[in-house]
Amino acid sequence: MNNSLGEMFRITSFGESHGDCIGIVVDGCPAGLPIGVEDIQREVDKRKSSRGRPLATGRRETDKVEVFSGVFNGFTTGAPICLAIWNRDIDSSAYEKIKNVLRPGHADFTAYEKYGGFNDWRGSGRFSGRITAGFVMAGAVAKKLLSTIGIEVTAHAVEIGGIKAAPPQDVESIRERMAGNEVSCADPAAAVKMIEAIKAASRDGDSLGGIIEARAEGLPVGLGEPVFDTIEGCLAKAYLAIPAVKGVEFGAGFAAARLKGSEDNDAFDVKSGRVITTTNNHGGILGGISSGMPLVARLAVKPTPSIGKLQRSVDLDSLEPTTVAVGGRHDTCIVPRAVAVAEAMTAVVLADFALRHGKIERVLR
Amino acid sequence: MNNSLGEMFRITSFGESHGDCIGIVVDGCPAGLPIGVEDIQREVDKRKSSRGRPLATGRRETDKVEVFSGVFNGFTTGAPICLAIWNRDIDSSAYEKIKNVLRPGHADFTAYEKYGGFNDWRGSGRFSGRITAGFVMAGAVAKKLLSTIGIEVTAHAVEIGGIKAAPPQDVESIRERMAGNEVSCADPAAAVKMIEAIKAASRDGDSLGGIIEARAEGLPVGLGEPVFDTIEGCLAKAYLAIPAVKGVEFGAGFAAARLKGSEDNDAFDVKSGRVITTTNNHGGILGGISSGMPLVARLAVKPTPSIGKLQRSVDLDSLEPTTVAVGGRHDTCIVPRAVAVAEAMTAVVLADFALRHGKIERVLR
Amino acid sequence: MNNSLGEMFRITSFGESHGDCIGIVVDGCPAGLPIGVEDIQREVDKRKSSRGRPLATGRRETDKVEVFSGVFNGFTTGAPICLAIWNRDIDSSAYEKIKNVLRPGHADFTAYEKYGGFNDWRGSGRFSGRITAGFVMAGAVAKKLLSTIGIEVTAHAVEIGGIKAAPPQDVESIRERMAGNEVSCADPAAAVKMIEAIKAASRDGDSLGGIIEARAEGLPVGLGEPVFDTIEGCLAKAYLAIPAVKGVEFGAGFAAARLKGSEDNDAFDVKSGRVITTTNNHGGILGGISSGMPLVARLAVKPTPSIGKLQRSVDLDSLEPTTVAVGGRHDTCIVPRAVAVAEAMTAVVLADFALRHGKIERVLR
Amino acid sequence: MNNSLGEMFRITSFGESHGDCIGIVVDGCPAGLPIGVEDIQREVDKRKSSRGRPLATGRRETDKVEVFSGVFNGFTTGAPICLAIWNRDIDSSAYEKIKNVLRPGHADFTAYEKYGGFNDWRGSGRFSGRITAGFVMAGAVAKKLLSTIGIEVTAHAVEIGGIKAAPPQDVESIRERMAGNEVSCADPAAAVKMIEAIKAASRDGDSLGGIIEARAEGLPVGLGEPVFDTIEGCLAKAYLAIPAVKGVEFGAGFAAARLKGSEDNDAFDVKSGRVITTTNNHGGILGGISSGMPLVARLAVKPTPSIGKLQRSVDLDSLEPTTVAVGGRHDTCIVPRAVAVAEAMTAVVLADFALRHGKIERVLR
After folding, report:
1. What backbone torsions phi and psi does residue D323 show, to the nearest 5 degrees?
2. Considering B243, B341, C205, D92, which has the largest number of Cβ atoms within 10 A of its Cβ?
């Protein structure tokens, strides 16, 4: 029951998978930001299933963005921006058949218990990945806002089904290379294998997970509000709102736990009059505050829980064991589409921090 | 500049390493909880350096807990509970010498930039691990509160310096075994090696990191407030406020990214009339909501940045390269002491969720 | 830039007077509340100008409520409820003409300065009373929720243009009588005079203000979260978000400042085994907490700033003095329509307190 | 159970009347503000009873301020500032005698019900006016902060026991004149009568209320965050946290409800190149946003509920009617001392708005 995130740049999510629409209210965006529906549409299109994504859901939505409020004459007004896409291609029949059977790995059981069975179960309702279209709309505004102070956010797939991409190079080459394949991976050779793996999993009625890296370049030093609103903490909270994300790490992350201090510590140096570190095990964050080095986070995405294979489950009505094979229209691997969502959430959180730390003016001119 | 955490069970942290005291205000604890200073002291003692921790800081503090408000006649009153320990054994001399030299891996640079050089640098000031004593005091209240509805929180070290403990068994054996050694590890054989590794690192003027597992048993189904206040998200945010934590995962976590759906999905079953899962890759959380299975989280702790070895750095005054060997009194590995902090933060977050979901009455009798 | 209100029952407002729509997101409403669009429409109709209100705005909107999310099969689902009405009868021409002239008593100047001239000025944009239609939609949900625990909220006009209604009697007669006239006043004789006064003011190209009383019956003892979230404080904050409200008082209010303690103190007594007070100068609130006696608040509404009379003003472009006579379509007195808004905000705040204090279950059955 | 107020300048109150101490944590104050304990002591002294206040409580506390954290070398550090005074002159005997008897006009009944009888009843515990000493400490920091951008806050008594002061002139004369008497009234002649009235009430075993005006000069245009965080709303919420305040109005306030639009509207004009209004019925706030004109608020303070006269009441144990004459040490009229509190809360709220709107830098130099 908390669908708002952020302090000064605050988003409020609404809508269900098979309801009327998916929407988001963005509150706190400064006035004077030039923005058009096309800026938002471009980002929303990145997570669409119809872009040739291998084995993505067969649901075909136009996902045409509408701007209900907060933009006037091509600029933000300082008022809350309500953005929405309508749900059109709704087919709840596959869900109707199994609505009393708990799908393993899904929120069916916990949602049923928490909301007393009143939750909208059609297409997973509020627990569908489709609600992240709203996150992406908010992220589009955030990205535009961050660009005014030179911050660029990028996410890409670094691992799918156990296939690792070669370590990313500079951000320009990441962007260029990830655009060349359907899994948003900056290593073309790995991308080919990933696509094969997804197709193979699909043939088996199975699914795959993976790892997404989110980055931000151009951050000023000083973003983050310790002790509790660290950059890491607020990003992790935002990332873990993306369905299927089960882990988050920053910089060297879990690998840092196996390093010695002399290996993990990033030496300081001076370059062009600015303090930098010579390595970036800290992922651009020290003490919960941005250091000016590139921010680097990684998100662990579990395999899509909806699979065609027969699984053991329980019937909620009878409380008897049963089995289930999940139909409906699902992605075999959501990682490629979740890349756009990870990017969006990174932007939303950083926009909030930039405003809180006074790095963005309340009125842009 | 945000030192409060939580909605209904909200903690507010204050104090610096070499200031007058370390404190915490706990707001929102229901009235009628029986609690004494000894309940809080017991938890605080768990993170003390003087408990024979191998190579823990030489700073010797009594850490005697004082209850300033909110408790009357042995019960909480419903008013904010202010808890504090005084700083007594202060020696800022080692810091004075290097106060203009950025210690690699520390928040010196980011804090200096963010607070314009006005931050209290003595003993790392607000960025010292010592402020987590406040977290532990709050955790003591939260643990007591959770115990009224049968929730038990436990943390233990599962890896130090690359040495992995054998997978934990039931929670009773974890508690019993971890109490038998100074690194809070439930695998006695691994504990011996961990202690040796810490001692070796200390001899080298180096430091170690590790991984902590935090667990909660007895959770009711339904805690968590999606879409943004998921259990994972709120716990991760709380964990990442602990200095040196750089990654968090739940259930199978990052390993889940390499599983297939058919492997990762936990089958549902019925036991004693209750729905359970036969495995726990989901770590007790589905859709951001507790499933009733044990909650399992892991925290990656980087090696202590303060090391005796000579490191490359920069002098803030001259902006010239320099070197630094960090003196002061530091732990070679903070994992053993951070176990108590991870446990505390788990309790604080779960207490908040239990109150938000109406699982704990506003007045206890 | 803060368009959200409430902790557990939280509303988020969006939309402008001449934009696409006026909307509200209600987050935190428990699952299982039976509600239909007609429940919300009924409340929205109460603030419509077309109900024969004397000299209300000529703008004719159908104000047909749409439920975008959060309701399924006639019950709330626990998900955010997005409600909206579309703006249809838009005519910005009167505003176009004077868009650079500051209308006295309006937010033109402050909004221009705060939002750098990017604010939507059409029909006062975000500062129009029209956005309170969103408040009323949220209030409809809150009223329905409160009714499940026997709380009834009522507002009525007690003074217009200096004409005072006779002191209100019991709440049933208030409701019955106020429904009999177009100014929502429970004193029929006063209502006649109020209507005459409004007509006279209109003839003069002038406007009137007044006072609204908001009441709640059936409150349990114990709502309110001191020290900062008192019932008075949270209600006042909500009331002062209604355009034109410039003062709020509770119980005897400002008159209490002139009483002696022996006159103002309400004596305690016991009735049917319950503690009551024999008088109600405290307006149902002691120490910021509900006492179980009827809650009584009064809101001072200033006269509509839009008047046809010529007024001195300033041209924003030239910064030269000028004069302005405000055209457009405005109410001569907004008090009758603001009654529904005051009632709605009372309900929204009390629903939040009832949830926070655990008086309403998270799932209704 | 909510003892925090503010978004970016957030205060957290703790402590009880007869507990160890009264304290406040100020979070979010920018780094680099020069402040000493004497700046805070000066404000705290203004609300002390020992300053010759007529018939103020006989309790004699030194109220010596201690700064526990957040200040280093004479400047704020950006870390939370914890401030406290110790309770020394505690005598709970008068309360012990009547602890089961509900004092009319007090929070005894509502607190007992809300906190299940676990609340600290000594000296009214958490509901004592003494906790406002914490508000004043926070206000001292806020005032110092506001002074860096030229905002000056002033409060004074404008009515006591029905005796009205002549309308205030310029703020300098208000300050000068109110300092000349013990009731903080800017009208010397009225002050004499007020003091007489207080003495007479005391002789009768009775008490008086009154009205406080709070003002702020030097406000920039644009503070306030509509639609819900208006300046009026946030100030009213803060004022109503002061015990005994039962009403708040801004500018012409309740009187505006009796004016016509042509009378109430403040004409715009230009002076020295700045837009001003020729009158100030709007009290410096239009659309919930500061207009640059002086902010003017008035607080209705009810008479002290503790009176020596015999009153009808109820015994909580037996639920039988009884009578009570309240002993203990109380002010006959709290208005003179509450002036300092109203001033403090005004400063706290405005500091928050100034930070939110970017008018104060995060680091002061």
Report:
1. -130, 160
2. B341
